[in-house]
Hints:
The protein has helices at residues 96-109, 136-150, 177-182, 209-238, 252-271; strands at residues 29-33, 41-47, 50-61, 74-81, 121-131, 161-167, 170-173, 185-192, 197-201, 204-205. It is α+β, with helices and mostly antiparallel strands.
Amino acid sequence: MSPEVKPDFLISPEGLRIDGRRTDEMRPIELKVGVLKQADGSASIRQGKTYIIAGVYGPRELHPRHLTLNDRAYLRVDYRMATFSVPDRKRPAPSRREKEISMVIANALKPALFLGEFPKAVVDVFITVIQADGGTRCAAINAASLALADAGIPMRSLIPAVAVGKADGKLLVDLGDEEDKYGQGDVPMAIIPNTEEITLLQQDGSFSREELREALQMGINSCKYLHELQKEALKRAYIKKTPDNGDDIEDEDDFDDDLETDLGEAELMEGE
Ligand code: UDP
């Protein structure tokens, strides 16, 4: 493989990025729900060349016992990169970066989950990065949130996440690997879309107050778009097909009503 060469510029004179995207344009995204047979819930995401699978097991008995939380389930997230996920072989032992990203992902997901429903149990979320090309922590949150929904873990909302960065002085959403490496910084974020509550906010590089404000607004807009894609992926997995003609037997409107009813019940539980 030829060694990677630093690009001359990240934004062309026409204002386009190295892969031809506009500054506020996400990479192509493909979300799938129910991709693993043995897991209680699962999902995959392709975001540009980044490809990630998330599997959820639980709620189930927690081992080792000393980690038990008496009033809620323990959300245990394990983010790992496959050895072949990056051009240089990734060492198989868990790195400090992987441990930190696991913690950050758990913290981003927890505010949406009713873990108090399952005291003393564990909900295990295993995330494997199959191919890394920038933005893996955010793509992992997008997939893990769908996998948790697929496992039937009660939640207030799905959680979408995206990184907004800066290159050649311009703000860009959803950085690819080169933009991440050669850009001036990035701000990964995750939100609860209905309330715009921020559940993940990190910053690498320096941003002025005005840039940060604009980056947050770009991130919120992209997260809302991602949230629609997440809901569509769930619908595709759960609206059943008749065996003969492939028509939907559950109406999409009914599915939306069910989602709203579930959310209503969830809010009720939260208020208790
Ligand atoms: N990366 C890599 N080797 C590593 C870790 C990361 O090549 O051991 C690349 C990978 O493409 C990743 C990018 O660097 O997506 C940015 O990594 P960062 O730590 O900023 O996290 P991410 O943007 O993936 O959330």
